[in-house]
Design a protein that fits this description.
There is one protein chain. The chain has seven helices and ten strands. With 213 residues, the protein is α/β, with parallel strands linked by helices. The strands form two sheets. An eight-stranded parallel beta barrel has the order 1-2-3-4-5-6-7-8, surrounded by five helices. It has a two-stranded antiparallel ribbon with strand order 9-10. Helix 6 links the parallel strand 7 and strand 8. The chain is globular, with a radius of gyration of 16 Å.
């Protein structure tokens, strides 16, 4: 079975159409203000209306408060919430309980112990997304094109569904899936021409490569 595909950080109607045309499974809307991919509520609402029910809409947040979540979920008609900050298992569980949506928890990975840490979210999230750990002084927690050692996921046994992010591009995604058996792959900067600007040809190429495995 082919890996599911999420294209994250979509911010224009044209690139959303490219994601839909490429038949990705999930689109990511970024609600973290420092990110070059950040969406305002009006922009997110317009994109969500354009997408309709044709694709799963995942909102990406970094340590959000309840008001921010409520506003974004309402505006963008989100199907899932992705927590990309330092949210604890308790916070993750609280978000899921309060808003009634699946929670994707991002686990930043640099060492094997980081992978093990994902198990703490077994009863607190619905999906685990392994991403590359960014440097301590980095402005963003992800979307920087960094990758980690995929060998750390070799033979992984997870109690939750999981996916792979971090430095994935049209040229390496097939190899990443083959190496890890990832059931889902997620890219943002890997399909951009410059930070925050998606390349429609790269989106198509990424989806084609991911399905080639």
């Amino acid at each position: 079975m082919a890996a599911a595909i999420k294209i994250c950080g979509i911010s224009t109607p044209e690139t959303l159409d490219a994601v839909l045309d490429a038949q990705a499974d999930h689109v990511g809307f970024n609600f973290f203000p420092p990110s070059p991919r950040h969406l305002g509520l009006a922009e997110a609402s317009a994109l969500a209306a354009r997408a309709g029910s044709r694709i799963s809409k995942v909102g990406v947040f970094v340590d959000p408060d309840d008001d921010a979540l409520r506003d974004a979920i309402s505006a963008a008609k989100l199907d899932a919430v992705q927590l990309h900050g330092d949210e604890s298992p308790a916070r993750s569980a609280a978000v899921r309980a309060q808003f009634g949506l699946p929670v994707w928890k991002v686990i930043p990975v640099a060492t094997a112990s980081d992978v093990v840490r994902a198990q703490a979210y077994t009863d607190a999230a619905d999906f685990i997304l392994f991403d590359a750990k960014t440097p301590k002084d980095a402005q963003l927690p992800g979307g920087m094109g960094l990758r980690f050692d995929w060998g750390l996921l070799s033979g992984i046994r997870m109690s939750l569904p999981w996916g792979l992010a971090g430095g994935l591009s049209p040229t390496n995604v097939a190899g990443a899936i083959a190496a890890t058996g990832a059931p889902l792959v997620d890219t943002s900067s890997g399909v951009e021409s410059v930070p925050g600007v998606k390349d429609m040809d790269k989106i198509a190429a990424f989806c084609k490569a991911a399905r080639s495995v």
